[in-house]
Amino acid sequence: MALFGDPFRRFLFSPTIYAGATPGSIALLDWLETPSAHIFKINVPGYSKDDVKVYVQEGILVIRGEGVKEDLPKQKEKDVVWHVAERKAMGEGDFSREIELPADLKVDQIKAQVDNGVLTVVVPKDTTHKSSKVRNIHVTSKL
């Protein structure tokens, strides 16, 4: 079993967090493989299809969420008492994940959808590998 040929080596040897992201701004991920596709499910609560960007660059699936900002009461208001403030401090509403893809995929047929706070990215398998430098994937609300 070749560790350096394993798509999970990226989790072990390099960060999956976008360089501009703050600690804790990683979206939780499930990755499953069927005989016909790789399926990625990422928690994106509060994000619409317009807030999520999905693209493939040099064999890396990049998933970014931007723009969801919640207007919360300011700490200086005299009647507001903050007991816990973890959500806002953990990432300011942005996240990013990078996943190294296996070589046997149809990158030009990737589909992505956001439904009930979950982004699902379906990457069909292919026996004839065709490489592409950059491929943007249109995110819809339904597949």
UniProtKB/TrEMBL annotation:
<comment type="similarity">
    <text>Belongs to the small heat shock protein (HSP20) family.</text>
</comment>
<keyword id="KW-0346">Stress response</keyword>
<dbReference type="InterPro" id="IPR031107">
    <property type="entry name" value="Small_HSP"/>
</dbReference>
<feature type="domain" description="SHSP">
    <location>
        <begin position="19"/>
        <end position="140"/>
    </location>
</feature>
<dbReference type="InterPro" id="IPR008978">
    <property type="entry name" value="HSP20-like_chaperone"/>
</dbReference>
<dbReference type="InterPro" id="IPR002068">
    <property type="entry name" value="A-crystallin/Hsp20_dom"/>
</dbReference>
<protein>
    <recommendedName>
        <fullName>SHSP domain-containing protein</fullName>
    </recommendedName>
</protein>
<dbReference type="Pfam" id="PF00011">
    <property type="entry name" value="HSP20"/>
</dbReference>
